[in-house]
């Protein structure tokens, strides 16, 4: 169990470069199964979730080779379609393998992916969509047995614009006879990145980025090119850290057009935001103004993955802020940790009322999920005294050596690696 120790009081100043987005890379690590030739993911972040997806690919018989920040995957030797229980239960994004495994082998045996600290994480929409593609699915003893040998294109309606279900069904549909349309599809930039990757492999995916995505199936797929997509959540996290600490941070590589909802909230609380081609800069005020309403919703709405760090921002704002978490059913666990630092937050179901305080005090806190963990470290940058964030290794699921990036920006922060 690692811990990250922070001594607060120093504004963050400087610049950092953002890498390829975790939430774009993970589905691409599924898409590599759709052809046998080796493919490379450039500018790939070294993250726990990426390592776990590589472990799954290796288990299935593939080979994953790092060369600096490039990750080459060869699936020629892939010969298994049963997902290892242990990893599947631990890694939600293992579900992104279901569609590609079905497309590659016509069969898949999976266990239910673990829920995690932000909610129950069901996969009913994934399964409903696969059944619409004529996949026979039996659920027995916690396992899902899929027979997708005769997938047929279909018109699928998602009850909710699920990112993972959209991506899974896009990849499965490349092997279905005929045309598939996914209605009420997720519109995140990561969906477009996946569609671009699939099209570079010879697929025909249109409409990605809109709520209606069409895939023509059964086209021969070949080695393609994965173009990097800057991680909008990592970029948003460090820009918000400038707002929390009254600093001045520039994120090189960040795309302002993928962060409109976040940048608008940063300006609303008094930051000066300069978004130009290839970088975004945030200059924080001495003390942020309250945010009357932060509501998470599917893209292009305010991202749920930015909710925790914005709650941290609101705890030191000059007034009372209201946050609604509409995407996941339990993503406010950070509130109790922030309260240990002196924050005053009232949680009622999906609503959190955050009354800004003049000062946070350093404390021992626990990282309950990767975004909450990052937010607690950032709160420690503002708090008086020492903050120790326990269970800090969960932060590595989505942030590469967060302590190094923050140190580079002037923070007093160290990681103490546990056993
Ligand atoms: C993706 O998760 C991201 N993960 C999440 O990022 C992100 O928070 C989420 O999309 C929303 O943007 C990856 O891309 C690897 P969903 P995903 O399916 O696909 C419910 C991070 O911190 N739902 O869009 O799992 C679900 O419970 C992570 O980087 C069903 O009910 O999210 C949730 O309430 C956290 N049934 C809502 O939909 C289903 O079959 C949105 O989930 C699928 C989802």
Task: Summarize the helices and strands and which ones pair or pack.
Layout: E1 3-7, E2 13-17, H1 22-31, E3 39-41, H2 48-59, E4 63-67, E5 70-74, H3 85-90, H4 98-105, E6 107-111, H5 124-132, E7 136-140, E8 143-147, E9 155-157, H6 163-173, E10 179-183, H7 189-200, E11 204-206, E12 212-216, H8 232-245, E13 248-252, H9 260-268, E14 272-276, E15 279-283, E16 294-295, H10 307-315, E17 320-324, H11 334-340, E18 344-348, E19 351-355, E20 364-366, H12 370-382, E21 386-390, H13 402-408, E22 412-416
Parallel strand pairs: 2-13, 9-10, 16-17, 20-21
Antiparallel strand pairs: 1-21, 1-22, 3-5, 4-5, 6-8, 7-8, 10-12, 11-12, 13-15, 14-15, 17-19, 18-19
Helix pairs in contact: 1-2, 1-7, 4-6, 5-6, 6-7, 8-10, 8-12, 10-12
Bound molecules: ligand EPZ.
């Amino acid at each position: 169990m690692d811990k990250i120790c922070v001594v607060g009081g120093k504004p963050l100043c400087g610049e950092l470069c953002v890498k390829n987005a975790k939430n774009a890379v993970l589905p691409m690590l599924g898409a590599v199964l759709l052809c046998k030739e080796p493919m490379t993911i450039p500018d790939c972040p070294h993250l726990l979730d990426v390592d776990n997806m590589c472990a799954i690919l290796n288990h299935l018989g593939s080979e994953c080779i790092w060369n600096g920040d490039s990750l080459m995957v060869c699936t020629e030797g892939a010969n298994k379609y049963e997902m290892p229980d242990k990893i599947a239960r631990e890694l939600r994004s293992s579900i992104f393998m279901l569609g590609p495994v079905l497309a590659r082998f016509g069969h898949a045996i999976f266990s239910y992916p673990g829920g995690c600290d932000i909610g129950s994480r069901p996969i009913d929409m994934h399964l409903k969509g696969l059944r619409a593609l004529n996949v026979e699915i039996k659920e027995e003893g916690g396992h899902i047995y899929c027979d997708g040998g005769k997938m047929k294109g279909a018109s699928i309606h998602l009850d909710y614009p699920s990112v993972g279900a959209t991506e899974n069904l896009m990849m499965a549909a490349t092997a279905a006879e005929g045309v598939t349309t996914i209605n009420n599809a997720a519109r995140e930039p990561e969906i477009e990145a996946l569609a671009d990757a699939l099209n570079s492999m010879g697929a025909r995916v249109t409409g990605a980025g809109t709520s209606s995505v069409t895939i023509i199936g059964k086209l021969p797929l070949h080695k393609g090119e994965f173009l990097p997509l800057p991680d909008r959540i990592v970029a948003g996290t460090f820009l918000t850290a400038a707002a929390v600490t009254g600093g001045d941070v520039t994120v090189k590589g960040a795309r302002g057009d993928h962060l409109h909802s976040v940048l608008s909230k940063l300006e609303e609380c008094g930051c000066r935001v300069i978004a130009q081609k290839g970088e975004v800069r945030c200059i924080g005020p001495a003390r942020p103004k309250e945010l009357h309403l932060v509501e998470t919703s599917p893209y292009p709405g305010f991202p749920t993955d930015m909710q925790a760090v914005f709650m941290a921002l609101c705890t030191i704002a000059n007034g009372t802020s209201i946050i609604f978490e509409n995407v996941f059913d339990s993503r406010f666990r950070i509130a109790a940790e922030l309260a240990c630092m002196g924050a005053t937050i009232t949680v009622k179901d999906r609503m959190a009322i955050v009354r800004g305080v003049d000062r946070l005090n350093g404390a021992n806190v626990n990282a309950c999920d990767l975004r909450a963990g990052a937010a607690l470290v950032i709160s420690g940058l503002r708090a008086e005294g020492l903050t120790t964030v326990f269970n800090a290794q969960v932060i590595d699921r989505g942030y590469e050596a967060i302590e190094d990036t923050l140190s580079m920006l002037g923070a007093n922060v160290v990681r103490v690696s546990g056993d």
